[in-house]
Amino acid sequence: MFSPCHRLVSAVSAGRGCAYGALALAALAATPAAADNSYNMNSGGQLSEVLTYTGDTTILFAFAHMPKVPNCTGRYFVIPGDQGLARQQELSRLLTAYATHESINIGYDGQTCGPGGYIMVHRVG
After folding, report:
1. Which distant-in-sequence residues (6+ apart) come within 8 Å of 98 by Cβ?
2. What dihedral angle (degrees, nearest 10) is formed by the CA atoms of 115, 117, 123, 125?
């Protein structure tokens, strides 16, 4: 009888043990973020503002100390309204972190600006 770990990773580890399989699964899980060429920087901390508007689906948010991105206003991070379901999940994470005063980590584009000249966000976690 195989252990639960062996069943979980047997296709990945090719019999080299649970640790190798878990490592391989972790590498596979990290691959999508590395494949996104526009996500190249991280920042984190407690949120100072989370802004939404009734006439627009764009989400703006800020930390007390914002990173500098060339040619961006730097005042806010932006999640554009065309993100679909991912936008709703990111808004949920932002509002939860804001309400509980938890630190949050975000992935953003450190080279170019998003809508309105704000810093474009690709991941909220």
Report:
1. 47, 50, 61
2. -120
pLDDT tens digits, residue range 94-104?
999 999 999 99
Sign of CA dihedral 75, 66, 123, 106: negative
pLDDT of amino acid 46? 95
Count the helices and strands in the chain (H runs, E runs): 3, 5
Residue 33 has which token pair?
């973020």
* Number of domains forming the structure of the chain: 2
- Give me the CATH number covering residue 62: 2.40.50
11 and 26 in a single domain? The answer is yes
Walking along the chain (125 residues) 10 residues at a time, the average pLDDT comes out as 41 45 40 51 94 88 91 88 82 95 93 89 89
pLDDT at position 80 is 84
Q: How far apart are CA 85 and CA 50, in angstroms?
A: 18
Q: Which domain holds residue 45?
A: 41-124
The DSSP code for 59 is E
